[in-house]
Amino acid sequence: MAAPLTFNAFPSSDHVLSSAENFVVYVLLEAVAGGAAGASGARLPLNLGVVLDRSGSMYDERRLEFVIEAVKFLADNAAPDDKIAVVAFADSARVIIQPDQIHDRAAVRRALDDIDLLEIGGGTQMALGMRAAIDEVKKNLAPTRLNRVLVLTDGQTYEETACLDLAAQNRDQMSFSAMGVGVEFNEKLLMRIAQDSHGKYHFIGDPAEIPGIFEDELEGLRAVSLRNGRIDLTLSQGVQIREAFRASPEIYPLGTPLLEDRKATYEMGDLEAGVPASVLLTLVLPPRRPGPVRIAQSTFRYEVPGGSEGASSIEVTVEYTLDRALTSRRNGRVMNLVDQVSIAKLQAKAEEELKMGNVDRATRLLGNAIQGTQRLGNVKATQALAGLMDQVKKTQTLQTKAAKTTLLQAQAVVRKTQMLDPEALKELQKGG
After folding, report:
1. In angstroms, rounded to a whole number, what is the distance separating the alpha carbons of residues 51 and 193?
2. Which of these, 412, 405, 404, lies nearest to 354 by C-alpha position?
3. What is the pTM of this model?
4. Which residues lie across from 239 on neighbouring strands?
5. What distance in Å separates the CA atoms of residue 59 and residue 68, rounded to the nearest whole number?
6. Over the chain, what is the mean pLDDT?
7. Cα 47-53-57 angle, rounded to 5 deg
8. CA 155 to CA 238: how far, in whole Å?
9. What is the pLDDT at residue 258?
10. What pairs with residue 148 in β-bridges?
11. Is there a contact between 428 and 406 (Cβ–Cβ < 8 Å)?
12. Which of 99, 272, 338, 349 could form a disulfide with 83 if both were Cys (CB 3.0 to 4.6 A apart)?
């Protein structure tokens, strides 16, 4: 029987200079779930709450039409044991499809045909929609189900703090995926909701992409094989964490951990089979005498759906040496991820500079990011960042629709970990 999980640690260098003060080593902690979904390979039933924005702007660009098509896709692909509730919101929220009604095609069709007739106003009160969906998911909450709320909106919402609080308060029971359509929504809010609850964030530039995004979400949920993963890390004496980033399947900062007795924990959420879940750490090491040294211990803990809990532990070791030539050798795969994280940081810094009106500094940062994507051979990221820089030079701002669109596209591309083909991965793992 195949192991449910592999967990490995990859230092950027196996050798550390003994005499160096504050020697920096990057460490990639990577877990990959094996096998098919479920404890015995069976597909796990879904328990979803779908939150749909039906504010007035959703009638622009046929957005609501594509949402209806996406809900029909969910209904057509729901398994007999799936529970899927659908909530529409504007100034108020209404459950338009109960969890068991998703299997009644006539009921689904009536609900979607009548969505225009709902007396729920024309504003955007997303927290009300989220709360209604959470209540529906809780009706069928079970550790043997995949419990998630999907939120789709095209606008700024009132009470953003309430949305964040709802995701935070319920993250131990369900994850939240957030989908933003167009350019008027608050991408920072939607990213935060998804990242904090281990769901997914999607930027939907073209409303015609909505059904495909729903399909991707459904495929990802079907592929989940392990639940509630987390990395427990214990640092050796004198070792410090400077930075921590989620490195795959998406790149985003994890913040500075509050270390207690040199311990840190990183929540990883559910794992899809074959998709790496990883954290990239920047560690600062003290000087030591030459010889092998353990710099950290780590355990990946997880739940097998419908089964038991599991854990996989590793030690992170390096060799202290006086030979500078040995310390210059790098793990190519780890350094590739370090470069990708650096590019994401440059893009984020450029965005902040633009908000402060520092256009020249922003374009220089974007230029540095583009050089990085070119060096990595990441054509999509290069094109996205080049398009953003062109828009910035033309408009000197992010306030135009074209500029905001290119920004959101660049964020989405840069945030996604560049997946390497197997042969390229072999070359990088040689440390060349």
Report:
1. 14
2. 404
3. 0.90
4. none
5. 12
6. 90
7. 160
8. 48
9. 67
10. 48, 175
11. no
12. 99
